[in-house]
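3.2 Worked example (two chains)
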Amino acid sequence: MKLALILNVIDPKIGGVMIMGDRGTGKSTTIRAIADLLPEIPVVADDMFNSHPSDLELMGDEVRNLIKKQEAVETRFIKVPMVDLPLGATEDRVCGTIDIEKALMEGVKTFEPGLLAKANRGILYVDEVNLLDDHLVDILLDSAASGWNTVEREGISIRHPARFVLVGSGNPEEGELRPQLLDRFGLHAEIRTVKDPTLRVEIVEQRSNFDQNPQSCIESYKDQQLDLKQKIIDAQSNLKNTNLDYEFKVKISQVCSELDVDGLRGDIVINRAAKALAAYEGRTEVTVQDIKKVVTLCLRHRLRKDPLESIDSGVKVAKVFDQIFEGS
């Protein structure tokens, strides 16, 4: 789970992560904590879309027009936005809405930003995503894939950037996502309750220590936190210099073909995730071990469900990977 989140932060184009697991296993806690590991980002001051001051792809139309006219814009640094999407959210709350009355009376397009606008260049977290209305999940996945959100009301249209890492979590006992929606998530992590008594006691003690003195607990892990933060920043800057050998690309596609994975999303995501992992480990060349670490995260949720098959999908992916990459 931690690796899946870090890889998405290094390369948001991986396409988000779906985390399914038992109740009380720290899914929400881990997801919300990832925002503290990220460096502050430059934004245009007082802009509702967190527009980047120089990257045209990450700007709203208003800021882009100012930049094209070579007008000065005020900038500031903010923490990476972490936006929670509640289960009962409406489409207008998610996408935003246009003030029709003001548009008709004054001829001014007034946009009330939704959660997608606030999450631009950040993380959008949906707890219990398997209980969210399917049409809202469609909207989220479309925006995450395209990087843009378009709001159209009564012949008036507004478009704004919506580049975010989509993170969903849920308990499989409460229902599964439709396969075509599940396929749109880049990575899929499964979390199980810890069985080792010693490890369970360690987790309970750490939680007790935090409850008694949160500040002291945070301070004790400060150096590790800063080291991890710097490692992620270095990986983000080194990602473009990371190479994946052509022979490995062919074998990755061979694994996907052997597992009868629909479409090419699996191939693309494994390529991106393996490169992100290599950058995270401080290397410029992807190794077989990098691919092995990410292949199950990338393909587990893309396999066709066979009710008569007893083998776990993750085990099946690992078995085919070994056959093709290691000949075992």
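3.2.1 Second chain
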Amino acid sequence: AGAGVDGVDAARLEQMVQTVDAGSVGARVVLVDGMVARIEGSDVAPEVNVAAWTDVDGDVQAEALQVLRSARETGLVHGDVFHKLNAAAMQDVCVVSVPAGVEIDKPIHLLSIATGIANSDATACHHPRIVVLARDNAKVAIVEQHVCLDDSTSAFVNSCTTVSPSRGATVEHALLSNLTADSYHIAGVYAAVPRDARYALCSVNTRARVSRTTAGINLYEPGADCSLYGLGLATKRATVDLHSRIIHGQKNCTSEQLQKNVAAERGHAIFRGRVIVNQGASQTDSQQLCKSLLLSSTAEVDAMPNLEIHCDDVKCTHGATVADLTEDELFYIQSRGLSEEVARFLLVNGFAEEILQKVPSSIGSDSIRSDVQDLARTMRSRPQDMATYSSV
């Protein structure tokens, strides 16, 4: 096959792009090593702007630049060194802009492909940058998917996505990280949510040697709402890490967070969730929960939910659970005539499926389901007292 983008194998690139039916997405943007390589699909309103930085309309570019420089975003980053590294090293910006009142029925697919360094054992570094703008009462679903060109690729991907909904807008955002076992993914997601707007993030992390997602959400006007759902799959010697910071800055704001982790073999799953209710943010409704399955005596789970309340008249809950599959759960399914191996498969698969169903499209989630099912199939009967080695 001939060369593709900057020497990337064109046939392999086309094969990866075509794994998703073009009819299932409103538009597709393919980023190769952090740079917009192609944009296809036109099943969106003509006034919707999906483009690389150099092709963005002047007014949209000015707004995107203001968002990138926003003091609200800076406050959410809170000294994140990887955000600064992305800002210094990024080579392009993918911009998605949805005008006021426009509702897009099909999701916009942002496929970020990382390549390695030819004939070298060195790890390639890439810094994708994405900005999503949704004006008043607009509605859009974004599926951001990070993959490697092939199984031999070793890459360090430092992605940063900034979401800026206007009043009354709704943005559903799926962040799917499915790199190779020799790769590293540091993902930053930042959103400032105004009055009556809603932002929903579903992050799923599998395969990579180290995968860390940092989510910063600022509910800075009354009536703002956000939901954070996450799934981390830590197997072999992988580390899956989620750090979140939700700020309730004004009254009558709501937030919901559910993080699920599966740790097996020598995997390490980490959750550190922080909810801050500022002074004056009365009538806040916030729920935070982390559930983890610890399927091996050599795996680790660290769960650190954190709630800071600086005012009265709020309804806030937070908590964490870490456990192996219980004898009662296994017995219930086995009593229906199924083997213990099948029972383990069903329980692990069902545990993850609750989060995967939050992805606004089947794009990318099928391969992640396959990873979960492969893990579930490898689970075999073992003494239940091994679960006493759980660490929190």
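3.3 Remarks
Helices lie at 10-17, 58-68, 71-77, 81-89, 327-334, 340-356, 365-378.
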